[in-house]
Amino acid sequence: MPDFSIQGKIAIVTGASKGIGFGLAKAMAAVGAIVAVTARRKESLDALVEEIAAAGGEAKAYELDVRNISQIRSVFEQVAQHFGRLDILVNNAGLGEGMLAEDVTEEYWDDMLDVNLKGVFFCCQAAGRIMLAQGSGKIVNVSSQVSIVGIPEGVAYCASKGGVNQLTKVLALEWSSRGVNINAVGPTFIYTPGTAEKLDEIAFRDGVLARIPAGRIGSIDDVAGAVIYLASPASNLVTGTLLVVDGGWTAQ
């Protein structure tokens, strides 16, 4: 029978202080994973660690700016040393602010690519080195539906997420034979405290819903289900792929 359990697995979730990352860390802890949560400010993770502990789970917070390559390596080594291994990485940290192409500045472009693509790769590399040495591991990169379709004001964001898909494929080719699976999830618009203001605008929400055949905005639980599947033994033959969680948006 398929094994969907991640009970007792050691997981890192980046960008966990709010939004999807916050919810993913809670969901993974709820089904038994021991979660190392990271954010640029360690204190911003206090509420998350407390919520997980109150629900009977286990979490430990680490300060991590994914633009800082030496800090990535240090934090991942700390996690592996503290817990004795690293089983799962969920690369969630990212930027998402839109901008018209003609207004994009070099600073904006560099910030978007540094966090959404460069940071993702070097987190993969740091986790991969640990996982390859132990002969096992699961990496799940949080991509987006707009990694395969475009949206206005998304030139840098779409480019960064398209890059995530490609690095996911290449790392799968290099690492899968050595026990490390790497995949990506591609969510549609997900309702979070950060997206609520925009999605609560009737015109904007109606425009989004018109593109989703399933007829609803996504929830964090929708994304968590895909992540937990890809992190579990049930997905052992799944590697180098993008699992879209978009209600059919990209099927059109």
Automatic annotation (TrEMBL):
InterPro entries: NAD(P)-bd_dom_sf, Sc_DH/Rdtase_CS, SDR, SDR_fam. GO terms for molecular function: oxidoreductase activity. One of its GO terms (biological process) is bile acid metabolic process. Gene3D superfamilies: NAD(P)-binding Rossmann-like Domain. Keywords: Oxidoreductase. Pfam families: adh_short_C2. NCBIfam families: PRK07231.1 (NF005559). Belongs to the short-chain dehydrogenases/reductases (SDR) family. This is Short-chain dehydrogenase. The lineage of its organism: Bacteria, Bacillati, Bacillota, Bacilli, Bacillales.
